[in-house]
Design goal:
globular, 21 helices, alpha/beta, Rossmann fold, 6-stranded parallel β-sheet, 6-stranded antiparallel β-sheet, 698 residues, 3 domains
Amino acid sequence: MCCELKRRFLLLYATQKGQAKAIAEEIWQQAGAHGLEADMHCISEMDKYNLETEKDPVVIVISTTGTGDPPDTARKFVKKIQDKTLPPDHFAHLQYGLLGLGDSEYMFFCNGGRTVDRRLQELGAQHFYDTGLADDCVGLELVVDPWIDGLWVALKEALQLQKEKEGMNSAVDAVSSSISTAHAVHELKLSSEVQNLKLEDEGTRASDTLSRKLDDINPVAPARDTEPSLVHSVPPVSQSALNIPALPPEYIEVEFQDTQGENPHLSSLISEGTTFEVPVTKAVQLTREDAIKTALLLELDIADTAFEYQPGDAFSIICPNNVSEVEELLHILGLSEKGDDFVCVKVKQGTKKKGASRPQHIPERSTLKFILTWCLEIRAIPKKAFLRALVECTSDTGEKRRLQELCSRQGASDYTHFIRDSNVCLLDLLHAFPSCKPSLSLLIEHLPKLQARSYSVSSSNLYQPGRLHFVFNVVEFPASPSRPVSRKGVCTGWLSELVAPLLHPSKNSVDTKGESSSTEKISIFVRPSNAFHLPADPSVPFIMVGPGTGISPFIGFLQHRQKLREQHTDWEFGETWLFFGCRHQDRDYLFKQLQCFLENGTLTHLKVCFSRDSSTAEVAPPKYVQDILRLCAKEVARVLLKERGYFYVCGDKKHMADDVSDAVVDILSREMETDKLEAMKILAMLREAKRYLLDVWS
C-alpha cells in the first residue's frame, strides 16, 4: 500500500530564554509519528514564511518577557500585525492554534501570547484549536503536555476541512478521504500508546522501541526509605510503567584544537544593543552586618561612553558563572586539563534535528572554559528533555530508572518538587547521579544561554553626570535536601566578590589620597523602560511604593526632581509621596538621606515602616507598605482620582506588589463607596493609561 504523503503545518516560535523554542522542537519531533510535517521557524524569520498567503494550519508557541512584553524575537512581527491600516479580514484565510508561556507571578500573565492571539482574531484569523496558557509559576508542563496531546487531532481535523474546502469532494476523493481519516484515527490511538514510550530516535523500529521500553521500566528493588527524594522514588511512581519523552536528536559536535588564539569579546554574545565596558568606582554596603540580607550600592563611571539613561530605566550586566562551579563541572566531565584548550563547535553531520544550527550564544571557536563561564547557564533548572538525554549517559540501573521517572508523566510531581521548586541545577544532578557522564556536546545542546542580569538604575544623570548607581541584595540560596550546598546568585555573588576590595580596602589597594585604586570593569548595556519614568508634566503628583531595594529607581526620581527644582524655580511641581519599608530601622534602612529630600522640599511626604522591630506603643505601628497606604487612603485616592496622579510600585512581586494592588483596590472601593469589582476596573484603567506602573521581580 502506498504511504500517504505527510501533511504540512507551519510551526512558529518566539522565545526569550529558549523555552518556547524547546517546546516547538518537541512538537516538531512528535509530528512525524502522527503523519504530519512541521515547517518550523523562529517568528523573526519573516523571509521564510508568509502568513498573508499561508493556506496550511499555523501553530504558534510564544513566551512573555519583562512585565508582559512579547519576546525580543517577536517585536518585528508584533509591530507588523499591529499596523492599524490592516483590514479586519486581513487574516480571514488563516487557521491557527497558539500556546502562550508566562508566569502568573507577574501581573500581565502570558501577555506576549495574548497580544498576538487578540490581534490575529481582530484581523479575521480563526482558531482551529483552543489557545493554551502555560504558567511557569506552577510548571509549564501542566498545560504544555496535554495541549500538545490534543493538538494532533485538531490539526488533522483542520487539514481535513482544508481538503474539503479545496473542492476535493468527488466520490473517489471522498473514499480516499474516509480511508485517510480512519488511518489517522488508528495512527493516533497507536501513538498515544507507543510514541511517548519511545526511547530511541525516530529511526528506531516500533518493535525495538517497545522491547527496549519494557526492559527499562522494570522497577528497581524497593528501598527502605518511605519518603521520596531526588534520587529515590516510592509507589506508585516506583512501580509504574512510564510515559517518557522521545529522545531529542543529537546535533552538536565539538572538536578540540591544538591552535591558540583569543576568545571572542563579550559584546559578541549580546544581540540586544551596544555594550559598554565601564569601571566600578565605588561600592557601599547599605545594610548592617547583622541584617538578614546584604544590600550593596555600586557606582559605575560612564563618563567616557555613549551610555544614556533616564531615571526609571534598567540596564543589564553581562556576568560569568561562578569560577569554582565551572572548575567542578570540568572535573566531573573529565576535562580539567582541557579548560584552556580551544574548541570548534559545529553541527553534527547527518543529524536528524530539523534546521539544526550552532546556537547563537555559542562561539564557533573559543576555549572550553570560555563557553562554560560566559555562554551557558550552568545553574539552569534542567528541563525534562535534558533529563531524558541524561538517561542515555547513565550506567547505573537504579539511577537510570530514577532519571526516567523524573522526566516522565508519572513523575511530574516529583520533578516539580525535587528539581523545579528545589532549584536543582546540572551540577546537583551530576553529584546525585554519579554514574551519569554527559558529553560536552550534550551540555551545549541542552543548557540555555547565560542571560545578562537586569537592574534598576538608582541615580539621575542630571544630578550626577557621568555616574550610574544601582542597588541590589546579594542573593542567597540556602542548602536543601535536593541541593546540599548553599550558593549565591550568579551575578550578585560575582559582583560582591568583584567589589570586595572597594568594600574592605587593604593597605596595598589604597592610594595616597585614601581612596581605593581598584579598576575592576564590567560590561553593561541599557534596557530602556517603556513607561516607568517620571510624569512628563512636573506639576502632576505621584506616589512611589518601594520597600527594600525596591526603593532603588525612586532615588533616581528624587535626585532628578531635586535638580529640576534647582534649575527651574518658576516651574510648578506636584507633590511627591514615598512609601518605604524594611525589616529593622537600624539594620536595613537603606537610604536614611531620604530625610534630606524631605527637608529641601523635593519629597513632600515620607512614610516608613519596619516589619520586624518591636513596639511598646498601645496601637501597633503599621508593619508593611500596604498597611501605611491604607492609613493614607483619602490622600491616595485624591492623588489618583481627583488630581490624575501617577502610582509607581517597585520590588518583590510575590510578597509585596500583589498586596499593594489589593490595598489600592480597597482604598478605591472605600473612598468611592463602590464595590471591589468596580474598584478593580478603575485600577485596570489606571494601568491601561500608564498611570499605575510596575517594576517588579519574583
